[in-house]
Amino acid sequence: MDIILFVVIIFVASILQTSTGFGFSILATPFLLLLFQPNEAIQINLILSLVISVALIARIRKDIDYGILKRLVIGSAAGLPVGIVIFSLIDIRYLKLGISLIILALTVMLMLKFRIRQSQGRDLTVGGLAGSLTTSIGMPGPPLLLYFSGTDTQKAKLRGTTLAFYLFIYSLSLIIQVIVAGTSKTVWMSSGIALPLVFVGLLIGQRLFNVINQRVFQIFTYIILIFTGVYMLIESL
Fold first, then answer.
1. DSSP E strands, 15-139
2. 37: region left, alpha or beta (phi > 0 left; psi from -120 to 50 alpha)
3. Residue span of the structural domain in which 38 resides
4. 174 phi and psi, to 5 degrees?
5. pLDDT in tens, 177-234
6. pLDDT at position 233
7. pTM, to two decimals
8. Domain total in the chain
9. DSSP-derived secondary structure for 62-91
10. CA of 89: how far to CAs of 4, 46, 83, 179, in Å?
11. Which of 26, 96, 210, 231 has its CA 20 to 30 A from that of 106?
């Protein structure tokens, strides 16, 4: 049963990540935490997300907003060490509870047409939040997704910029995680088993990206956020 759940998680999350630019960590991490120890689940997520970003970077390069990307990277540099401290000191159950409530509250605001203006300062702040969430629970996606949705960012720009940012943030976070928390054979064997599923998901996800319009993309975003928030809330209670 565990192996079937693992296969389904990785396959669906890979399709989401490729077609939208987010979704792997948001969907996979809560379920991986059911199957593995926290540090193992986070590291498997980081490895596979990094593989997806590397595989797609050449294709999405033209869609990257390099100004925003630069500020996200700078902001994340401050957030990464904060996240690893949180991971080391705080019970992950309480961390998931807090994050789930924030995700749900902000998603409701977005659905009610709350909008925010993009600015350099906010880019830095969102980068910091994404960095801290990556090293603490392996999920940089929620602040990026909420921010870009709130600024009505076009789907190609959203996907390109977030995937480029993930290439940086996942690489550095994985190194920090391995140094601080250590690693195991389980992490690397499970990641190796998952690779064929990831590549099949890449092919399907790219086809979906080409046919999804902006409105469907936005609705899909809300569904993923609500699902993630509710699931993390239930798991933390």
1. none
2. beta
3. 2-236
4. -65, -45
5. 888 888 999 999 999 999 999 889 888 887 887 777 767 777 777 787 788 788 878 8
6. 86
7. 0.78
8. 1
9. GG--HHHHHHHHHHHHHHHHHHHHHHHHS-
10. 33, 20, 10, 16
11. 210
